[in-house]
Amino acid sequence: MKRVAALYLPDWPIERLRQAERTAQSSPPEATPGAQLDALRTAAAAEQEQACSVPRGGGWRPGARWAREERARQIAELPAHQRPSPRELGRREEAAGNPFRPMQSDEVRSQVPAGEVPAKILPGTGRGTVGEAGGGGGPEARESIASGPLHQAASRLGPPPRSGEDFSVSPLLTSTRTGNRVLVAAACPAARALGVRPGMAVTEARAYGSGLDIRPADPAGDLAALHRLALMAARRWAPSVAVEDADTLLIDLTGVAHLHGGEARMARRIVRLLARRGYSARIAIADTPGAAWALAHFVARDAVLICPPGQHAAALAPLPIPALRVDPAAVELLRRLGVEQIGPLAAMPRAPLARRFGGALVTRLEQALGTLPEPLSPVVPREAISVQRRFVEPVATAEGIAHWIGALVPELCAALEAAGLGARAVELVADRVDGVPQRIRIGLARASRDCLHLIRLIARRIEDVEPGYGIDAITLHVRRAEPLAAQPFDERLDEEAKPDLAPLADTLATRIGSRRLWRSRPVESDVPERSVGRDGVLDPPERSGPKIRPGDVRQLLRAAPPDPWRPDWPRPARLLARPERLDHVLAELPDQPPRRFTWRGRTIRVVRADGPERIAGEWWRRSVETHAVRDYFRVEDEGGHRYWLFRRGDGERGVTGDLSWYLHGLFG
Predict the structure, then answer these.
(1) What is the DSSP letter of 383?
(2) Cα–Cα distance between 365 and 317 in angstroms, integer?
(3) What angle do CA 441, 447, 448 make, to 5 degrees?
(4) Other residues' Cβ atoms within 10 Å of the Cβ of residue 190
(5) What pLDDT was estimated at residue 499?
(6) Rounded distance, CA 319 to CA 299, Å?
(7) Does residue 663 contact residue 598 with C-beta atoms inside 8 Å?
(8) What's the chain's Rg over C-alpha atoms?
(9) pLDDT tens digits, residue range 467-523?
(10) How far is it, in rounded angstroms, from Cα 474 to Cα 442?
(11) pLDDT tens track for 59-80
(12) From CA 19, how far away is CA 3, in angstroms rounded?
């Protein structure tokens, strides 16, 4: 029987903004926009490893039974004079019990273990709240849940806990423009507690509170982030996941729930995973996607709501008509006719409904009841591109490896072209007979799928492969790729034609390593050693600074890119790693250049000089630079060599420096 789960994220736009703020505060400015979902993937991978008492990954869990027994065995093996005293053993490793008496709670909540997300079972099954192992509570819990209407039974467990909301900050709203009106698109729980509702005018919402934080809505960004979450769910939870609305995912659990410990346990794990990342969620599980969507949006007051198989029609009967996802005009017309619930609507003949309201209403009703199929449009995760060739006889020569590289790279480029991608990192894995793989990884400065260029880069690294007794298979993996469309081809050979530096950068990186190949970029600083940064060879210069809100002119000016280096004061292209001190300096104070100095044991006589260029310390960075001063000079010796050196201090005030001389760079 088909089972579908509706994952409803009621505050997805608000919590996405909150999570983006936390990520921006704890991550460098160059963090990618999907960093929070990367952290969610990491947490999902950790969630797959269920906590238990056996060692996993070389570690052990404090307080586990096997750890205590192992420790007791080790102590018993020690001689009597080396065993720890009872006083040393008095400290216990497990947590102490709660000294306070727990307060009496209602009979349903008392059956839920501490720290568990309660899973609600709809009436009609004789089962109560499901625990961690999938069992139910006591008979009192079963009676209280099974009695009364569906919405009353669900409301007894109370609203789900808000995991990602901080009521100490200003209430957050998002606004959208509709014609000449600015309306509230989404509101956080703190704002909704004040009376603000989505669809309300922003001017009316301001009357409910003076400290509202109103930001423009980003529906495209919310939908893109939800799509990335669906891709992650399709890789880890179920192969069929569809994006239904801007805040809902439909997950097909048919045939996969038992792999995660059952429906209730799987749903609780998903809710806990999202809660740890700051997202509140509700999950409803039913036989049809329409029923699961309706229960998640209109019934679920708890984190998990499970409709037993075959009971979705009874669960949908007391729900309002909007739970069918129909046109609001049809909902209003049905309300005028006195039909406000799905139960009376389902009892009506279908032909008059189709003639009066169209086929959409009848289709949605039949899909929710399960008489018509509702196919999902699942997201399809992009598979990693790779090509492989296995051999009947092992290959052990460099010529054989080069031959098969030349045969595999065109296949890899054809796969990249079909996907519209260009490779940025390619890895060759050669599987040896003895099971020890040999790896060659190359990086490209720019996305490319040029076969000859990739063959040349990989062929230069063949000497790094140790074939041993032979190689059984060779595989090429695309480890990193970027979209690559058709590129314009320039056949000009004149001086105005810009040379393509990407092949040269790739060749140099293959020989000397990618970490030794970089490009200097200007940084906004007057101190020479701080005014130079490192970038990729072909990467555009990055803009560092805070994120800009619309209309914030001061932040816009603060986040502007720094000015390039000033050409009126020439400086060396490369500075020394650390300024080197000069000895035996002969100079006239306060503003004259040196006449003679000793550097690295060699005495240098100055014949020409220019300066000084005075640079003050950056007092806003370090307090010791409040009065610091450097006077830089460009000097030339008798052999024509030019040096860039400075003196600490202005030559008049002792607080500015100790008048010591340093060499900072050499001119070419």
Answers:
(1) P
(2) 11
(3) 85
(4) 20
(5) 65
(6) 8
(7) no
(8) 35
(9) 888 999 999 999 989 888 776 655 554 555 566 677 777 777 777 777 777 777 788
(10) 15
(11) 344 444 555 666 777 778 787 7
(12) 31
pLDDT score recorded for residue 138: 37
Q: 3-state DSSP call for residue 467?
A: coil
Q: Got the DSSP string for 415-431?
A: HHHHHTEEEEEEEEEEE
Identity of residue 76: A
| Token digits of residue 172 | 């957050």
**171 and 179 Cβ atoms separated by less than 8 Å:** no
Burial of 279 from C-beta contacts in 10 A (0-12 / 13-18 / 19+)? buried
β-strand partners of 643: 635, 666
State how far the Cα of 145 lies from the Cα of 125, in Å rounded to an integer.
10
User: Is the distance from CB of 39 to CB of 253 less than 8 angstroms?
Assistant: no
Q: Identify residue 430 by its one-letter amino acid code.
A: A
Residue 348 in tokens: 């009506």
Tokens (6 digits) for 153: 């039974």
What average pLDDT does this structure show over 360-380? Answer: 91
Q: Are strands 438-448 and 421-432 parallel, antiparallel or unpaired?
A: antiparallel
Q: pLDDT of 176-208, one tens digit each?
A: 998 888 999 999 988 888 889 898 999 898 888
The values of phi and psi at residue 415, to 5°, are -65, -40
What count of other Cβ atoms lies within 10 Å of the Cβ of residue 600? Answer: 9
Q: Give the pair of three-digit tokens for residue 245.
A: 């609305």
Q: In what order do the strands lie in the sheet with 4-8?
A: 119-121, 304-306, 282-286, 4-8, 248-252, 241-243
Q: φ, ψ for residue 470 (rounded to 5)?
A: 130, 160
In the structure encoding, which two tokens stand for residue 324, read together? 């069918």
User: What's the whole-number average pLDDT of the chain?
Assistant: 78
HEC readout, 600-663:
CCEEEEEEEEEEEEEEECCCCCCHHHCCCEEEEEEEEECCCCEEEEEEECCCCCHHHCCCCEEE
Q: What is the residue whose two structure tokens read 């031959």?
A: 403
Query: Rounded to an integer, what distance in angstroms lies between the CA atom of residue 368 and that of residue 372?
Result: 8
Provide the sign of the torsion angle of the four alpha carbons 234, 239, 243, 247, taken in this order.
negative
DSSP 8-state secondary structure symbol assigned to residue 161:
P
- Tell me if the pTM is above 0.70: no
Give the pLDDT mean for 13-37.
Answer: 68
> What is the sign of the dihedral through the CA atoms of 293, 36, 279 and 115?
positive
The tokens describing 417, both together, are 């072209």
Q: Rounded to an integer, what distance in angstroms lies between the CA atom of residue 195 and that of residue 191?
A: 7
Q: How confident is the model at residue 292 (pLDDT cuts 50, 70, 90)?
A: very high
- Alpha-helical regions (H) of 307-423: 312-316, 328-336, 342-346, 350-357, 359-369, 398-419
Residues in the chain: 668
What is residue 131's predicted lDDT score, i.e. its pLDDT? 36
Helix (H, G, I), strand (E, B) or coil at 541: coil
Find tokens 């960075």 and name the residue.
621
- Cα torsion for 502, 508, 510, 514, to the nearest 10°? -80
How high is the pLDDT of residue 22? Answer: 79
pLDDT band, very low/low/confident/very high, at 44 (cuts 50, 70, 90): low
- For 169-224, the three-class secondary structure string (H helix, E strand, C coil) is CCCEEEEEEECCEEEEEEECHHHHHHCCCCCCEHHHHHCCCCCCEEEECCHHHHHH
Provide the 10 A C-beta neighbour count for residue 197. Answer: 12
Judge contact between 505 and 537, C-beta under 8 A: yes
Distances (CA, A) of 126 to 44, 157, 620: 33, 17, 69
* Contact assessment for residue 83 and residue 235, using Cβ atoms and an 8 Å cutoff: no
**pLDDT band of 132, cuts 50, 70, 90:** very low
